[in-house]
Sequence to fold (312 residues):
Amino acid sequence: MSYPNEVTITEVCPRDGFQSLPDSIPTDEKIEIVNKLIDCNYKQIEITSFVHPKAIPQLKDATEVVQGIKRNNSVKLRALIPNLRGLDRAIVAGVDKVKLMLSASDSHSLNNANSKTFDAMKGFESLVKRASESTVIVSGSISVAFGCPYEGEVPIERLSAICERYIDLGILDLSLADTTGMANPFKVKQVIRVLREKYPQLKFSLHLHNTRGMAFANAVAGLEEGVTDFDSSVAGLGGCPYAPNASGNIASEDLIHGFEEMGINTGVDLDKLINIAKILEGKFPIQSDSFILKAGKCSDLHIAPKEQKKLG
Ligand code: ZN
Fold:
């Protein structure tokens, strides 16, 4: 079994994490956290979502955050956009990349975007055209790709049809999201193997939620099928809208620590990241969820006890 030497981690806390918090974080605090994250050497950060401020008031300061942070040339800023208005705001704010929102199942799509999956995709054509007149790069996503909380199983044929539509639009960078933590390693391997074989021109990334504790196993399954791009959120910030007390995104420090232990380079400064996670855990103890914050790194050694302890 061989694993890649390096992977790319996209930090999604400023979008996925912040939008799930019950109260808005003051803009300057958000900017401070993002600046700290940039300092960890991430190659990409999902900075915000340009949705209607009434839909997600927690992200109403999207433009101010993008324009307030200290940027450098080595980090790309990606934002989620739901429509043309969102794209226009993202272009004006100055992000590098936008990610289109799309649900794999009609019922999830109706709930999220008020239209069925393929109807929602009809609107993508004008978005792609508008983006092509700017420097912003468009990527796609497929939410609930590994299972829908309303419909259950998402057939591979449906995922294939969505991929084909994205290819028609010229969008070749696709994020497969396990929005509600319904994936398992077998399913991840099966889906990615089929889609990569059918559509070698597509580049898949994985957005894994740890709702049922399977996210790291799913990430490794993705690795084994050739995926080298993953999303995660520092301190595991971000919940699951369908299970109020459940975990959201896999914690960045858990994913990065796990990969680094496997000898896979992420380029992210794990110690700096753990410090940010501790700050966020202190501020939002209910919303954060991370194994590394509880247990520390494998390399954090302990002094052996002088007396023998029988632990059974
Ligand atoms: Zn998410």
